[in-house]
Amino acid sequence: MEVIGEILVIRQGFIGAQSENNSMPPIGDLLKTDGMPSFIFLVVDHYFESKIPGRVPNSYGLSPEELTEQQPHVFYLTRAMIQVVLVIADIQNGFAPPERIPPIHTLLYAANKSEFSKLMKNPSFISSLFNIDVNIVPQRNNAILLLFKRYIDMIDRDEKLDESLRLMRKLSSVLKDDYRTLKLFMDSLEE
Amino acid sequence: MEDFSKLGFLKSGSISEGFVVRVGENISLESLRIGDFIVIEGKIYKFFGIIDDLRILSGSDEIFFDPPVSEIEKLAVKGSIVFSEAQISPYIMVDSSHNVHSIKTMPEHFSTARKAQEEDLELIFKRQAKMPFYIGSPLTMKEKIHIDLEKLCMRNNGIFGITGSGKTILAKIVFSGMIKNNIASLLIFDMHNEYGRFAKGEGVITPALKTFFPNRIKVFDVSTKNKDADEFIRIPLKYIEPEDLSLISSALYYSEKSGETAYIVAKKKGRAWLKYLFSLQEKSEEEITGEAQALGVNGASLSALSRHTAQLRRLAFLEDTEEESGIDAILSYLRNGVSVVVQFSEEYANNPLAYFLVSNVISRRIHKRYENLTEDEREKRRIIIVIEEAHKFLSTDLREGNIFGIIAREMRKFNVTLFIIDQRPSGIDPEVLSQVGTRFTLQLLDDSDIDAVFQGVGGGARLKKILRSVEPQQALLFGYALPMPVAMKVREFNEEFFKEVTENKEDPMKGINDMYG
């Protein structure tokens, strides 16, 4: 299994993981933990953190390429971080709300295609996505939208229409009191 | 596999106001229509009802400011933000042992609603009936609806509908069923010559009852020119009573005063009264005045009455003879299980005077014969008298002494009932209409006619909505012979039907081809 990152920050619902090799998983990706239950996370944001507290890096007007060439140490002193949200726990025979948050230093792995599909076909997973508190994670809808688009892009062409409709239907029941968001989702999914 | 017969689930409602079913998002609303037959599966009972309204609703108005554009978006919001409901009128409930009850309770939330299927229709219309007869199919289904002929024959019935709505075809289908099952003898006063051997209408010739049942139908005609007739009707003048004329007073253009005069003349002159009136037509005014004085009536009235009755002299079947022909034969045929079609062809075609007079005289004779019978003597054989254009002689104005009114009200216990075929039910005396047990209602457009048909019917307002959606060759049936109202397409009157009912070994179409090429 490919390690994507390691949980380093857990603070009042905020979970940050350091990315492995500075390679950032895209927003809207799904990550999981090893073992049982396996915790499922949604990537909602990227950010960088200085390894030296109080140090504010400055590029002095250099482009990223010039900076990499001329002052590579700048990058060694920052950490590429992934903000993730715990969505659901994969228990032996289905999915359930997570009873706890995995401890710090837990490794996060990429979810494979079949796990991705299984999750996206599970109605309680989709509902749980929308249970994420937007006050803690303002980027929630954006991340979910990207997740959906990734899924639609991934599946076979002959399944696309049925799956889009199924997802839109689920969305319209979850977002029945928020038509503006729903319309945004539907318009994006159709593109 | 998706179950397309599923409609949705019970959302709300009450026994008195009807049930509301939330229509499933996979159901196309246009696949449903008013009058559709619906089953709601309760835990103990199955509830049977019909759709009497459809509604589209939305959970939020926000959607209409930026409505979905693509089909997929429209589909996606269906069932969550926008949705549809069907209003169901429940009529009966059936327990697990297939006993039918009137609605006394109701199913709970989320009970499954579905369109009725073949077995449901069979359960309701066929298995409950002692003598089921296939009469049509629900508007959006191919399955069969049966009517209980035995129950049908026990009460008066009516077929109502505008011209061209399919009254005659429906009547021919029902009558064929009755004759085929040998359940009653029909006496059909066939105004437009449609029930005898063939019916000629709109350029098409179709077989009729005599072709299907050559041995169980006798065709009588008042005109001796009809070659298809088995026998002809002759009525002795002495049989005509003043009451017979009061019913046709409008056709004779005579007034109430003339009616009174007729009674006095009949009282004084006995059974020769009409012959006497005819004889006055050759007399001078002075002679008539003299006669009037002798009778104690007004001279002008007597003269007017004699003038008005002159029309009757043109009816060749009215004869000044002692012997009668036809009427007793008709009665004896009816009692022996042979149905009789009385036709009015050639010179009597579209002659209301002949039609009203003959139907009236014959029906009066039947009534007279039956009313004095004791319980044991009563006929076991049912007789059904079929009259067309009933509003013309069953109107409120003609209520007094009206033989058809009397038959409708009182003759059921004598096994004689009335079958009315009419296009203007609003013209029929409501008292008579209330005696009509089973109503076959085809298309009606006039509000007063629609109101008349539903007079005194429970839930009439709901049924009215269904009737308004009925098209030609479709009918709304309700009343005594059916466990619940049903909107249906009348079954096809085609060769398949001919083959099913006919007792004639020859192909019915062959007869037509032989005769008319």
Gist of the model:
Chain A is an alpha+beta fold. Chain A has 7 helices and 7 strands, in the order ββββααβββααααα. In chain A, β5 and β6 form a beta hairpin.
Number of strands of chain B: 23
Across the major sheet of chain A, the strand order is 1-2-5-4-3-7
Main structural class of chain A:
alpha+beta
Mean pLDDT of chain A: 89
Oligomer: heterodimer
Number of E-state strands of chain A: 7
Separate helix tally of chain A: 7
Radius of gyration of chain B: 27 Å
Strand content of chain A: 25-35%
Written account of the structure:
The complex is a heterodimer of chains A (191) and B (517). Chain A is globular and about 50 Å long. In chain A, strands 1-2-5-4-3-7 form a 6-stranded antiparallel beta barrel. Chain A is built from 7 helices and 7 strands. Chain A starts with a strand and ends with a helix. By secondary structure, chain A is an alpha+beta fold. Chain A has one domain. In chain A, 38% of the residues lie in helices and 27% in strands. With 517 residues, chain B is an alpha/beta fold. Chain B folds into 3 domains: 111 residues; 279 residues, Rossmann fold (3-Layer(aba) Sandwich), CATH 3.40.50; 76 residues. Helix content of chain B is 33%, strand content 25%. Chain B is built from 20 helices and 23 strands. A 12-stranded mixed beta sheet of chain B has the order 9-8-23-22-21-10-20-19-11-18-14-15. Chain B has a 6-stranded antiparallel barrel with strand order 1-2-5-4-3-7. Chain B has a two-stranded antiparallel ribbon with strand order 12-13. In chain B, β22 and β23 form a beta hairpin. The longest helix of chain B has 20 residues. Chain B is elongated and about 95 Å long. The relative contact order of chain B is 0.14. The chains are: A alpha+beta (191), B alpha/beta (517). At the A-B interface, α6 and α7 of A face α1 of B.
